[in-house]
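Newbie here. two chains, one complex. Structure please?
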Amino acid sequence: MARRVSPARIAVATVAAWIVGFVIFFPILWMILASFKTELEAFAIPPSFLFFHWTIENYETVQGRSDYIHHALNSLVVAGGSTLIAMLIAIPAAWSMAFAPSKRTKDTLLWMLSTKMMPPVGVLVPIYLIYRTFSLLDTLGGLILVLCLGNLPIVIWMLFTYFKEIPKDILEAARMDGATVRRELIYVLTPMAVPGIASTLLLNFILAWNEAFWTLNLSSSDAAPLTVFIASYSSPEGLFWAKLSAASTMAIAPILVLGWFSQRQLVRGLTFGAVK
Amino acid sequence: MTAETRALGRLLLSPAVGLLFVWMIVPLAMTIYFSTLRYNLLNPGMEQFIGLENYIYFLSDPAFLASLQNTLVLVGSVLLITVVLGTLIALLLDQVVIGRSIVRLMVIAPFFVMPTVSALVWKNLLMHPVSGLLSYIATSLGLTPIDWFADMPLLAIILIVAWQWLPFATLILLTALQSLDEEQREAAEMDGAGAFSTFFYVTLPHLARPITVVILIETIFLLTVFAEIFVTTGGGPGLATTNIAFLIYAQALIQYDVGSASAGGMVAVVIANIVAFFLVRIVGRNLEA
């Protein structure tokens, strides 16, 4: 039964909500606007909000520098690669804990969660030294490895919470009908698991794309993803605001779109199923 | 369940368990080992066992106390801002609002912005003492603009990080609010409870657990805020914005003092574990339900 709400209350709540939303979103909007200004206008006082000379020059400059494409590709390879490998390891594990649980399953899950609690900085020294010894510093493989292991607990947990919701009766019914394990996997389980797998993939890709501890510490140029590329704009004061904005807009745009699709899963994934 | 299924289950689980075990144990064991050595990468081959000296050195270093204080202030302030504002915004978005889904998109957007981008956009476009938008607004209102990163650098970092985490708190609390039984609230209102008592006696108790989860999870991530400091202040001026994570980074990869940085790393692990202990218990209780 819906509440009856007075039009005045709707009006007040709507205006307030839109103001709050606008204020929170404003830094991103301001950055997008700056990316279409000239460097002089981006730095100008008083700033112009909409009535400036719109230009796509910054995007051309940033994209023209071959290194932007290079770093964007690195981001794609590192985030995509670490996500796919994590999924390959996590799907069997989550399947096993959801459908063939043992007495130790709960402890195993909590232990996996606790590995995520380890602050990365606590193991920065050994990881850095291991990477240096095995020449993994500033390599795509090295970044994929560390991000894959770092996110593995979240991936397993998310998949587990999804798999656990698949009704077991369906499996039993299929078994009664004489379905083999293989047929059961292909025709019964997979269609029900696909949405959960897709959301897990999406959220983990976002987390890996934005990861900025290991990428900043373990890569500098060859394997550097966009997080590190953007960080390189930190040194010169005020000279490249428009280009920084253009590069940043391109770096966050794809993730913003993916993120908006995955808001529900975000809650579930990041709270380890504690809030749904 | 057949023995066959069980065996298959173990087989499928073992790669994940094995990898996570190695990922956790090997670096941690190395950190403990290094923390007992005098070991500087600039003097290779001079490693020497010194027992707990690194810990004494790290814990008695004034930089440690300063960075511990900065860490606590940073974590505490961001938690306070995100939980209070997050609750208020979630309550607002739980009302009947025209275009709510668009507002929600705008509110959660900052969470998807990579840390290096948010830090640099805030530092330059918004907080720059001359050309930043905030200084322009302050000047237009007849106020003195703040030179954020010179005069109150830690507050600047707090604002940036709070902006990044506010969507997370809002989204979780909103999700929790939407699961609050509508009839429960209506019953309270029919019993003559006003908006405030409904909030304090019905809504807030319902939010207690999600708020705890927000606090614990944010704490885990906020204890190791790094990129925002790395690209804006580099820990300065002086030690004004050095937190524990940044201090350890500086000792390891700027001063190459492996021994001391490892001792610091262990201190960070212990602090995080105290928080993790409570989080794991709450999540574990949920697992049984």
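Moderator note: The mean pLDDT of chain A is 85. Chain A has one domain: 66-270. Thread marked as resolved.
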